Amino acid sequence: MVKRKRSKSVYVAHRKNQREKILEVAKQIFIERGIEPVTIADIATASRLTRATIYKYFANRKEIAFEIFKVIISGWHERDKSEVWSHPGTGFQRLERSVNSFCDDLLQFPEETTFVAEFNRLFAKEVLHALRQSLGEDSNLVIKCLRQGVADGSLQPDLNPNLVMAAIYNLNASLLSRLGQMVKSDEEAYGVTADKVMREIYRIFINGIKANSGKYKSKAGPAGSSSRNRHTVKSTK
What we know:
Structural class: mainly alpha
Number of strands: 0
Distance between the termini: 26 Å
CATH architecture of the largest domain: Orthogonal Bundle
Radius of gyration: 21 Å
CATH superfamily of the largest domain: Tetracycline Repressor, domain 2
Strand content: under 5%
Number of domains: 2
Largest sheet: none
Order of helices and strands: HHHHHHHHHH
Helix content: over 70%
């Protein structure tokens, strides 16, 4: 009986390791080549597995890409929990930390940004559904701090929290998709780097909803001032 239980646990551990290996290899190939050109055969070859083995874990390339997408989104969620929402402050200060932290992620982890941008382009419906599920708690926290900001006077009194939340979501999604194209074009056209453009867009947005009174001053620091080392979030499945 003990031997049978041990054998089962070894089998489960093996399947988990195989699955994580496939995701890790596929992520690297997707980043190097893009999602669309990659086939199951490519992933099998790079993983040193057979296609039949890959199909034991994933039905197709899209399912593999979707799992990688969810792991990245989970990383954003965990980052916000530890670095944004756990710290006190006015509604404005907490919201400023949130948008600056997202901007930092886009700029500090360009490979993940490129992957998510392409996934968004290819599978928009899946992205919307996954974001609603994975970032639902974050969305509620943003709405909560918007209401807090209106109540404590750090944000404009006529803000509609749900509308502003939708605006933030669309701003993030738009800049996520745009970032890869900005790297060379904006520097050539305007003589400024993509990261400066991104930070300026977020600065203008956040200051646009800040209360006009000078009573409150941000303690979140300038955009991009955080220096964190985020570890890769592994799939728990």
